[in-house]
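Hello,

Our lab assistant flagged a job as stuck in the queue for most of the afternoon. It eventually completed. Since we weren't sure the result was trustworthy after the delay, we are filing this so someone can double-check. Below is the sequence as submitted and the structure that was eventually returned. Let us know if re-running is recommended.
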Amino acid sequence: MDIIYVRGQASAAAVTAALADAPSYSAVRALLRILEQKGHLRHQQEGPRYVFLPVVSRDRARSSALRSLVRTFFDGSPAQAAAALIDQAELSDEDFDRLAAVIDKARKEGR
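-- returned structure --
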């Protein structure tokens, strides 16, 4: 998906070429079809090839993936996910300030 978001559209061959340590072309093609069946991509035919385009905005896809990740690996707890990220990361003072501001804003908005 990232490759298609960056390029705006891409064929299976272009996605395969852009991936480091790429799986086979047929595996990439199969994954693109699955993403299309799930409603994340659509295709248009250009000559003999399909070119895939995103259907869902990057922000919406990011939000959906994050919800799934939190549900799957953190028992649905955003606090556990945030704590795990903070434990894993090397954050600067500016990063901590930004996180504190986000938390303060969420508190004030009653979230």
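-- support follow-up --
The delay was a queue issue, not a problem with the job. The result is valid. The chain has a mean pLDDT of 94. Helices lie at 2-7, 12-18, 25-37, 58-73, 78-88, 93-108.
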